[in-house]
Each structure stands twice: as structure tokens, then as C-alpha cells.
Amino acid sequence: MRLLFVCLGNICRSPAAETVLRELLEREGLSHALTVDSAGTLDYHVGSEPDPRMRKALRARGYQLWSRCRLIQSQDFLDFDVILAMDQQNVRELRRICPKPELMSKLKLAASYCTRHSVSEVPDPYYGTSEDFEHVIDLAEDFSQNLIQHLKTQRPIN
Ligand code: 4NP
After folding, report:
1. 13 an active-site residue?
2. Structural domain of 143
């Protein structure tokens, strides 16, 4: 099973989601069950490490980051089983590059897996405060725990 998180820059939200889910998978001994990656719809930061503010916020909670920014490709719709977008703007971009209409069913909003927060999107923290970065991690922990529950109880993620 292969899961891809997508945001705009691939330096804040989607690398945070990738990091949190990977770490929780590791703790549960489930790393073999799910391959996790992330990508962005904007090419501006390609090759960069995640934003220093996100790295700091993740480190403070004991997470290690190791992703590098990459651009989403049409091929990702073939290579991944589930594609989780952070907001509706990402969904619109992903629709535009989706190579076949039937592959659109792989696309969902990551926040739709939240159980403790009533949100539909993960808000962009880029022009925000340290609290906005914390909020991204709160949401990532929420939906990642639920995704892990799906795996544990063998419920389909998509
Ligand atoms: P992300 O945040 O989509 O969560 O990685 C952003 C990063 C960079 C920009 C916007 C959002 N930017 O405009 O460069």
C-alpha cells in the first residue's frame, strides 16, 4: 500500500504529515504495511528541506524529518494507492494533472480522516504563526492515528 500526502509547497504540511505518519507506523511496528511519501503542486521549493519553522515544531515533539521537496507528477496517480491533499486548492491542482478520470477516486482530503478535530482542510501555515505550525502537527497526529487504526483493523483506507 502506497500513500502520498500533497500540499502546495511540500515544505510545511505534507512533509509534516509524512513525518508524523511514518513515526507512528514505526512505533506500531507497521512500517512494512504502508509506504508514505509527500509532494507539492508548486515547483518553487523543489529540492529544499522542509521549512525551518516546521522542522523546529516537529523536533520539539520528538519527530525527525528527512524529506526533500519534490513536485507532484501525473505518474503519482499510477504509483500511489491513496493521495491525501491538504486543502481544496491542492485538490483542484491534482484534478488538473490526473491522467485518467477513474484515478480521481484515489484522491481525498487528509483532514477527512480526523476524528478529534472538526475540520475539512489543513490550513496553510506559511504566512502564519508558530501556533499555526503546531495546529498542522495536531491535525497530522489526529488523521495519522486514524489511518493507523484503519490498518490495524484491516479497514480500507480508500
Ligand atoms: P505548504 O506551505 O503548502 O504547507 O508546504 C507553503 C509553502 C510555501 C508556499 C506556500 C505554502 N509558498 O508560497 O512558497
Report:
1. yes
2. 2-154
